[in-house]
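Hey, resending since the last one bounced:
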Amino acid sequence: MVDLALGSPEIGAVNFTMLHKLLHAMLQKLSISDVKEAMDDSDKDFLATTIPVPDPQSSKTKPQALKRSSHYHELENKVEKIQQQLIDLNALPSNRELFERAKGEQPRPVADMWQALQIGKKVETNEAGVSKVS
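The structure tokens again:
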């Protein structure tokens, strides 16, 4: 089972399904499958996905996403924010945005878009050149 969990399909790959089965088999063999371990608050926060929050319009509670405060979750939120900014930067302007910019103080929206595309191509070319040198 260990070989299937840690060496399949290639060395270094982890088969989490087999690892899960292996750990449960070990717990049963050692007769400690019913032992409860106390968790730190930081571990509980890390593992929590939702918390019950009372619904103001009814007497029932409904699950709501938990605001995470651990360093891992802060990093995850920052990466998501950067990813969204990158998507926004790479997106071409819509026709509506082009018309609005044409009516504004700088009536060069098509030229600006062309310049942005050219700069993007130059950046890609530079990145390819640097990767070849490395």
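The two ends are 41 Å apart (CA to CA).

Sorry for the duplicate.
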